[in-house]
Amino acid sequence: MFREEDPMVITKVRRSVLERKIVREALSPLLPERHYPDYERANGRNTDELVSRITRAILRITSRGVRELRVSFEEGVFCLYGYCRTFHTKQKAQQAAMNLLKEGENLDNRIRVLYTEAG
Question: Which positions ≥6 away from 58 have C-beta within 8 Å?
Answer without folding.
Answer: 66, 69, 71, 80, 93, 96, 97
